[in-house]
Amino acid sequence: MTRARIRSSLAMLLALVLAPAAHASSAADEYALKAAFLYNFTRFVEWPPDAFPSSDGAFRICVFGTDPFGARLDALARRRVGTRAIEITRPSALADLPRCQIAYLGADTPEAIEAAAIGNAAPATLTVASDATFARDGGMVALVTSGGRVKLHVNLASIRRSPLRFSAKLLEVSEVRHGGSGGGR
How far is CA 8 from the centre of its chain? Predict the structure, then answer.
């Protein structure tokens, strides 16, 4: 790993861990920052081995619905999660979401947002949306922009129901939203 890559990774890591909310000055900055959050989730969330089709299968980050990221997210395909290559996909069917480790649900996909909120998306898929009510209503993580800042909202009940393991550091910089699809293990 080159020094520049190490510095870049450390900068993103510090932005996620040390800043309770990251600042975005424009819509372009907002989605560049949200793409960085999606990548950093790969470092602060642990997926079970059976979340992948094979031991060397790619780590899939999926965008379902309208894609606000474009090339900003595609750039992640040059990175790796451990030994796994990152694959960026844009599935057209809700049935494809279980093949994703992270699924970003666009605002124009109410059926996917509802499925994620009631726990019917995919158990080993980290569901993420930008809708401010997503985590409150049962989704796992919402990337909420407010006052020019991107904040993490999480639903602990949804997280506990899943086989995913979230780092305490990630939870420390998140705002917990209760409600929607409670339950837990």
Answer: 19
**C-beta separation of 147 from 30 below 8 A:** no
Q: At what angle do helices 27-44 and 3-18 cross, to 10 degrees?
A: 90
- Residue whose pair of structure tokens reads 């899943």 in the numeric block: 162
- What pairing do the DSSP bridges indicate for beta strands 141-146 and 126-129? parallel
CATH number of the domain to which 15 belongs: 3.40.50
Backbone φ, ψ for residue 160 (5° rounding): -65, -30
pTM: 0.81
| Residue 185 belongs to a domain | no
For residue 163, the 8-state DSSP code is S
> At residue 81, what are phi and psi to the nearest 5 degrees?
-115, 100
Q: What is the pLDDT of residues 85-101, one digit of tens each?
A: 999 999 999 888 889 99
